[in-house]
């Protein structure tokens, strides 16, 4: 009786082993389709390349496209400067430093040091340069287009200009702006 049970047990294992073997050989057509590898030559196309050229006007998925005025569309008010300072302190100061000198906490930890806003090159750069850098990134700085609204980018540009002026203002600039009384009150 024992030998009969063993025989049935062996027979019951056999279909379990045969079914997977039979299924592995079925319908390999889906896996073995003809296809082109990237940059492989393809005689069926006029230029013999399998990679097709992009359609004119194609834009990457995460590209921000927006019209950019050459000058800030915001009036230069105290509220705009306060907003610019707030946004600058959040997004820019960790790398560029609170004074815009490139002495932020991120470069202190070994990351690349950004340039100071107080160099002649950046003081003479147009406002649109700063807006473009915030929007698209530059060098190791990534784009802030998805983090900073366009109005806030212009407010940051206005604040950067105020930082630059604060480091390079002369007594004549203070007199021309009529700020002598405010400076005396601050002391």
TrEMBL record:
Organism: Methylocaldum szegediense
Pfam families: Cytochrome_CBB3 (PF13442)
Phylogenetic lineage: Bacteria, Pseudomonadati, Pseudomonadota, Gammaproteobacteria, Methylococcales
Residue stretches making up the Cytochrome c domain: 79-164
Name by which UniProt lists this protein: Cytochrome c
PANTHER family, sorted: LIPOPROTEIN-RELATED (PTHR40394), QUINOL:CYTOCHROME C OXIDOREDUCTASE MEMBRANE PROTEIN (PTHR40394:SF2)
UniProt keywords, alphabetically: Heme, Iron, Metal-binding
């Amino acid at each position: 009786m024992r030998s009969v049970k063993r025989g049935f047990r062996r027979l019951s294992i056999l279909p379990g082993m045969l079914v997977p073997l039979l299924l592995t050989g079925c319908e390999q057509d889906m896996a073995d389709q003809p296809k082109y590898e990237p940059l492989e030559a393809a005689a069926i196309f006029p230029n013999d390349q399998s990679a097709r050229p992009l359609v004119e006007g194609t834009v990457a998925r995460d590209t921000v496209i927006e019209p950019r005025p050459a000058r800030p569309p915001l009036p230069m008010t105290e509220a705009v400067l306060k907003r610019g300072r707030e946004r600058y302190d959040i997004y820019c100061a960790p790398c560029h430093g609170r004074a815009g000198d490139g002495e932020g906490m991120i470069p202190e930890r070994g990351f690349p040091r950004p340039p100071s806003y107080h160099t002649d090159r950046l003081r003479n750069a147009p406002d649109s340069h700063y807006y473009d850098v915030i929007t698209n990134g530059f060098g190791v700085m990534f784009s802030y287009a998805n983090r900073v609204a366009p109005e806030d980018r212009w407010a940051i540009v206005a604040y950067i200009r105020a930082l630059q002026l604060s480091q390079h203002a002369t007594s004549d600039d203070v007199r021309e702006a009529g700020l002598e009384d405010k400076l005396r009150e601050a002391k």
